[in-house]
Amino acid sequence: MKAKNRSLFSIGLFILIFLICTIPSARAQRFEVAPTRLNFNLEPGQNGQMMLNVKNHTDKKKTYLLSLSDWEVTESGAVNYLNPGTSNKSCADWITLNPPFFELQPNESKKIAVILRVPDTPEANATKWTMLFVQEAKEQNETAAADKGTKAGVTVNPSVGVYIFQSPASYNNVAALIQNFREVEKGKIVAADVKNMGDVIVQGKVYLIVSDLQTAEEYQLEPREFTLLPGVTKTIQLSLPDSMAPGHYTLTAVLDYSPDKDLEGVIMDYEIK
Questions:
Q1: Taking 90 as the threshold, does the pLDDT of residue 207 lie above it?
Q2: Dihedral (Cα; 227, 237, 82, 68), 10-degree rounding
Q3: The last residue of a domain, from among 166, 191, 215
């Protein structure tokens, strides 16, 4: 079995992109946070506010803390958390949380204001993001295992993270690239790398077209959907159909990421012996 890469090509068609689906709420055993993603579309110099709902599901009064953290995605897909305001893609310094610290009675809910003030600077003409953590705090004197010699304070329990994104509605520097089309597992899996070349989040899909050169049959497989932050590269793996008989094929990995952009793809000559 052998494979041979060809150059990128553009297809003069386009399809409407799907809207990303996100989990509307998250529960950390004893409390619930909704939504888990806040999308701001403010222009430089504008202010905006979105509300976050936190509910105490326990039968006791609880205290909650709010904090911000920057995060970055590595090429391997791992997430690194950073101090707020340290990433060049951070909007943490633009955010005010009101209140940042509060108590809830059993089964009580509270609305939290997430206020975003976008500066009127050139740097604001790009997608920025940060993470908001909602944490349940427990008084140390309520914890049997607490160190008796420790001063009074709080110990932080597991938290729920809320993604915050800011992208100006008028800014649409959308660009993506598909490359490095290759075989991963003989006769079973191929892969291609997709990189976000623009300054806004890319939401798209990659699908595989298999062309049988013996029979002239061509069929399209189910797409793999993805979301990419600016500057991030993601490897998309695509499974080959089990029904491929010995012979010569052309495999095409197609990238569809914007209704305003042509489809892009990479081609591989593929032989099964």
A1: yes
A2: 40
A3: 166
